[in-house]
């Protein structure tokens, strides 16, 4: 453990925290991508009457909850959940347009862009300078 406080040096705890935070955000991104698979699979299962889609939905459900829980070890629940649902809902709308022939109108694209913009701003606002509400 490095505890040097000389100017220009990096403390070991700070590096470990940064690495854990980066890993948590990558895990959260993965959880969001898996959430897309879950949402599309549930839609494709037609009320869990199609066995293939239903099994896929079960697998994706387990994976999305598992990866989300890992990410939330180092990310605030409110921020993590908002980012996870934003990725999942936006991605599911786009993927289902291709896989399930669901409409993707310009108005829907606009509001999906708003969601994605909100997710990006949440990530930026959760950076080190904003973690404690400071500048």
Could you explain how this protein is built, in words?
It contains 4 helices and no strands. The model has no long low-confidence stretch (mean pLDDT 86). With 135 residues, the chain is mostly helical. It has helices at residues 12-44, 51-71, 77-99, 106-125. 72% of the residues lie in helices and 0% in strands.
Helices and strands, in order, run as HHHH
Sheet having the most strands: none
Termini, distance in Å? 28 Å
Query: DSSP strand (E) fraction?
Result: under 5%
Strands, total number? 0
Low-confidence stretches: none
Q: Quaternary arrangement of the chains shown?
A: single chain
Overall pLDDT confidence: 86
Total helical elements: 4
Radius of gyration equals: 19 Å
């Amino acid at each position: 453990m490095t505890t040097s406080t000389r100017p220009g040096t990096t403390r070991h705890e700070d590096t470990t925290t940064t690495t854990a935070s980066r890993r948590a955000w990558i895990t959260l991104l993965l959880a969001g991508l898996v959430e897309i698979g879950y949402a599309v699979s549930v839609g494709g299962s037609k009320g869990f009457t199609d066995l293939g889609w239903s099994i896929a939905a079960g697998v994706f459900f387990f994976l999305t909850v598992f990866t989300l829980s890992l990410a939330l070890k180092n990310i605030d629940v409110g921020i993590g959940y908002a980012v996870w649902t934003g990725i999942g809902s936006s991605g599911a709308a786009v993927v289902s347009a291709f896989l399930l022939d669901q409409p993707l109108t310009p108005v829907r694209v606009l509001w999906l862009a708003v969601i994605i913009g909100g997710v990006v701003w949440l990530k930026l606002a959760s950076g080190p300078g904003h973690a404690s509400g400071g500048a």
